[in-house]
Amino acid sequence: MIKVNCFAHLKEQAGGNHIHIDRKEMSVKELLQEVQEKYHIQTDSVLVAINEEYAFPDDQVTEYDTVALIPPVSGG
Fold it and tell me: Can you tell me which residues the record assigns to a coiled coil (predicted)?
């Protein structure tokens, strides 16, 4: 099972701090598709971090990784 940490407004949309996906391995692209379909979270501008490093759509996520969904951030 892949545990995904959610931050900022994504926590509210997901209904909590974490999302659990019942897979052992998947690509970042597949992860974002599942999050969008299952939790109705708009993922167009969401960044994914795997083990505290930004990930690309073709990168693989496993159940042993630390995964985070990071919304766009702005500030001054």
Answer: none
